[in-house]
Amino acid sequence: MAEQRAEQEHAGSVAANNWLARGMRVTCFCAPQRSIDAASWWASVTGGEPDSSTVRPKIGAQVHEGALGEWRLALSVLPGRIDWRLSAPGPKSPESLDASLPPTCGPFPRAGQELLALAKRWSGLEDCPPSTRLAVGAELVQPVPDKAEGYRLATRYLGATMKIDPEGSSDLLYRINRSRACSIGDDTIPVNRLSTWSILRVTGQAVLDVTGRELGRVFTSTAFALSLELDINTGPEFSGELPAALFGEALDTLFDLATEIAVKGDVP
Questions:
Q1: With contact defined as beta carbons under 8 Å apart, do 172 and 151 qualify?
Q2: Which residues contact residue 210 at a Cβ distance below 8 angstroms, ignoring those fewer than 6 apart?
Q3: How far is CA 123 from CA 31, 85, 147, in A?
Q4: 17, 28, 145, 150: which could join 199 in a potential S-S bond, CB 3.0 to 4.6 Å?
Q5: How many other CB atoms sit within 10 Å of the CB of residue 118?
Q6: Residue 96 — pLDDT band, cuts 50, 70, 90?
Q7: Distances in Å between the alpha carbon of 43 and those of 1, 48, 115, 247?
């Protein structure tokens, strides 16, 4: 029995690694704070300083951005909402643009675990506000050689829900929320499992200068991918604050649910 379980976990890990993360997000909803020094959070969590910071005191907004290893990290703060976002750095020169999809953070499990570890370190800070809701978001792709293969791949994940003609179909956009009750600590909390499926088609990429201004667009042969966007979040039906001691457990639960969809597809 233990060997069978290990084989299933390995198969699930391999399947999850088929997805590449274009971006990952951890969101904390909380009571609006009068005064937050988010720059100190960045330093405490990453051990360094952000590359850029924008503070708008009148509306209580802050954005801090910088490098995190091979990725880009952003911390944004709005009244009642805090986001940690992981993304891939953009192409550095036109020569790096080819007939491929935009840069990614690499395999979904690795990027997700990196962001979760960072968010858990943040939750341990003394001035981290208590959460009323949490969310894990992901933008995932699986590259495919052509459109028809993209629809065949979509059938593997959505076949129990709908019939798809790989050759005659186009403009796939399937979005659904399948809420599930989950145990976190001593509470049973409703969790929204929102997934959006589509076929991504890329025919060109923007060429930017060092300021981010678009200089033009390089057109290459078309690239395709199956796209999956996930938003796994604790429902607003749960009232009260999530204890700091359960922050990590809650995040792990949300990430496990995201991984389940990435591996099994649209399941109840």
A1: yes
A2: none
A3: 15, 15, 43
A4: 150
A5: 18
A6: very low
A7: 46, 5, 15, 20
54: amino acid identity, one letter: T
Q: How many CB atoms lie within 10 A of CB 127?
A: 12
Greatest mean pLDDT range, 92-96, 131-135, 164-168: 131-135
d(CA 5, CA 79): 44
Going from the C-alpha of 20 to that of each of 43, 88, 97, 171, the distances in angstroms are 28, 11, 18, 21
Per-residue confidence (pLDDT) for residue 3, from 0 to 100: 46
Vertex 30: Cα angle to 24 and 32 (nearest 5)? 120
The chain-wide mean pLDDT, for the chain, equals 86
The percentage of residues in the chain with a pLDDT greater than 90, rounded to a whole number, is 62
120: nearest Cα among 22, 29, 252, 248: 248
Closest CA relative to residue 19, chosen from 245, 230, 232: 230
Q: Which residue is associated with the tokens 């993360």?
A: 21
Q: What was the pLDDT predicted at 60? A: 85
pTM, to two decimals:
0.86
